[in-house]
Amino acid sequence: MKLCETDSGKYTSVLQLPGSVLIVPQATLGGKPKGKGMQYHGNIGKDEGLKLYDSFVSHCQNELSAYTSAVRHRKTCKTNEGAECLSQPSSETSNGANKRIPKRAGHLSSPSRDDHVPVYTLVLVLVLSVCTRFYKITEPPHVCWDETHFGKMGSYYINRTFFFDVHPPLGKMLIGLAGYLTGYDGTFPFIKPGDKYEHHNYWGMRAFCAALGSCLPPFAFLIVLELSHSTPAALIAASLLIFDTGCITLSQYILLDPILMFFIMGSVLCMVRFNTQRLRPFSFSWWFWLLLTGVCLSGSLGVKFVGLFVILLVGINTAFDLWRLLGDLSLSLLDFGKHLLARVFGLIMLPLFLYTTIFAVHFIVLNRSGPGDGFFSSAFQSRLIGNNLHNASMPEYLAYGSVITVKNLRIAGGYLHSHWHLYPEGVGAHQQQVTAYLHKDYNNLWLVKRPDNSDESITPIPSPLTKKHLQVTGYGINGSGDVNDLWQVEVCGGKKGDPVKVLRSKVRFLHRSTSCVLCSSGKTLPKWGWEQVEVTCSPYVKETPNTQWNIEDHINPKLPNISLSVLKPTFLEVLWESHIVMIRGNSGLKPKDNEMNSKPWHWPINYQGLRFSGVNETEYRVYLLGNPVIWWLNLLSLALFVLMLTVASLAKQRGVKMEGMRKVHCHTLMEGGGMLLLGWLLHYLPFYIMGRILYYHHYFPAMLFSSMLTGTTNLHLLFSSSISHHLMRGGQFILLLGFIYSFYLFHPLSYGMRGPLAQDPASSMAGLRWMESWEF
């Protein structure tokens, strides 16, 4: 044992026991404050220590007897510096006094938490969550919204067919695995929304997503319970998710969103559970929650890149935790180094390893050529079975008379392509379009010809989108054109006269008359250009991937062939290229003509939903829209939380003393609620600076944090006031009734509607169209 002192007013001396810290009243010890911070005072004997311990217990019981009705079998003794000593009854000591199990300073217990109540409540939360998610899980029996994408991608995994998507592969891999394990054979085409599933076994993929979506309310319950130690607050947070029609709808279909939100909430839960293990560093439970946090982080990023937001949240929490440890003078620098290395391993190295493993499995499974080939380099395609480059042989050197395809070296730059469609009137020369196309196509084939002598003059014309570049068109009849047709092939980094090697040589095409170089600008043409990539002639002759090309297919029966198997890339090269393609694909997602583009400010106010199925009164309609009572309560709670946080911060700064449970709730408000507010901000604000198309469902990860914050905020409102216990319970009961009744009113949005639209006064939903922008 050792005795320490701190200048914290009434309770100044600290007795340290193995694995715990107890705050001991100065009056018991007769000591005096020794200055700022906690200072070593001396060693005491075992007998004296036990007497001191019993004296401490007795003092805490007398000092806090006024709070017994509120704390319900838990005692709280405190210091002015905010340290809390919270204890729970257990076995008795030899002198008959209740032995207390002290908790770490700053770890708060609730007035209402009973050891058995949370278990029963958690079971109830889980049952309600499963029931609301699995009800009518097979309805409607046709493709809804983005099931056409992610269901199809699940089929690709079952068939081992390579495809391209802007998101990492974990979510689609799990969907495909769920379908395979439940009897789906991967033959349904998923062509468009509304297509009937008929005899195909689709329910397993929906059930898998519903199962993960069913975990969100229990996760919210456990997170809020850990942060506030209040069962009512945790129940409110869970109820917000149980009875939210938006969360139910997203969980019932073959989508990435329930999988993503499962890993996000799992990451947060593991993080807060790890925080509770601070007094037992390097124990089994400490390592378990640390490593499980890393696993969930890799899962979040492995489903969608927005998983970076929860990684940032955990990173900020870890940085503050390490900063706290660095300021603990009782911890040696060697021990601090161990803490740092453990977090580096658990939260950086392990997630990175698992993340790369996901891609390794992805590349092993998808080993057959498919619709995604054209997005990747020629070397990448050579590893795909069925691709014309896989184990292929072709002439090694380019020659006149060869028929070739030319691929731009910019990632997702596309193949040089020309079709019979003309540039429209007013867009440069009214001649045949030349573009870059991301897919293999007969119109990608080009013939290498000897030049014809010609002395005609030319007039350059600006390109359609990149005005400082020149327009490139197709011209002539049966291969006969004019001087504008002449291009000089140069090997990048080579000398004049060097031969052009298939796949391996980087070449550029120099226009003989204007000295500009053929370029894939990366810009997407409008509808008249079939949304293909613009091809220009750049006056800037500096070598860049946009102006560099390689010869991919090469047909010339007059030349000998060589094997291309030596060109297969390494795993790291494939991993790097796939990420570049995904990032560029994400940034290239722009709204199409007449396509609904949601705005971030719409989301918190529930301004506009999203049609999942059906558009007219004869169809089975599902409409993604959050329960307005819940969403508007979340919005109000956000404003109240910011107000209360401001008031509490000002009070603390001014030295206002808060006694008893007010201090406990203030701590919960500032630390637990502050973390949830930060989570909401990190998952919401970045969308304001994104250039890609946005949809309403992008807000749902942020909505999870706002719902948990609502539970914490209402805890402070209901339990820090002077109203009676029965009125507190009454307020909680009214809230729950409001959630249930609003769910009863709006549940057809999730479980399907038929009949007149809400705009029709005869519709059963007419009275529920509270905003003109709602289109159900």
Automatic annotation (TrEMBL):
Keyword field contains Phosphoprotein: no
Ranges for region Disordered: 82-112
Membrane topology listed for this record: Multi-pass membrane protein
Membrane-spanning ranges: 203-225, 231-248, 255-274, 286-319, 340-365, 629-651, 672-690, 696-718, 730-747
GO molecular function: D-aminoacyl-tRNA deacylase activity; dolichyl-phosphate-mannose-protein mannosyltransferase activity
UniProt-listed Gene3D superfamilies: 2.80.10.50, D-tyrosyl-tRNA(Tyr) deacylase
Gene from which this protein is expressed: LOC109107356
Pathway(s) per entry: Protein modification; protein glycosylation
Listed PANTHER family: DOLICHYL-PHOSPHATE-MANNOSE--PROTEIN MANNOSYLTRANSFERASE, PROTEIN O-MANNOSYL-TRANSFERASE 2
Subcellular location: Endoplasmic reticulum membrane
Family: Belongs to the glycosyltransferase 39 family.
Signal peptide interval: none
EC number(s) reported in the record: 2.4.1.109, 3.1.1.96
Biased composition (Polar residues): 87-97
Recorded GO CC terms: endoplasmic reticulum membrane
Protein name, UniProt field: Protein O-mannosyl-transferase 2
Catalytic activities: a D-aminoacyl-tRNA + H2O = a tRNA + a D-alpha-amino acid + H(+); a di-trans,poly-cis-dolichyl beta-D-mannosyl phosphate + L-seryl-[protein] = 3-O-(alpha-D-mannosyl)-L-seryl-[protein] + a di-trans,poly-cis-dolichyl phosphate + H(+); glycyl-tRNA(Ala) + H2O = tRNA(Ala) + glycine + H(+); a di-trans,poly-cis-dolichyl beta-D-mannosyl phosphate + L-threonyl-[protein] = 3-O-(alpha-D-mannosyl)-L-threonyl-[protein] + a di-trans,poly-cis-dolichyl phosphate + H(+)
One Pfam family, short name: PMT_4TMC
MIR domain span: 395-451, 497-554
Coiled coil regions in record: none
PROSITE patterns hit by this protein: MIR
Keywords: Endoplasmic reticulum, Glycosyltransferase, Membrane, Repeat, Transferase, Transmembrane, Transmembrane helix
Organism expressing this protein natively: Cyprinus carpio
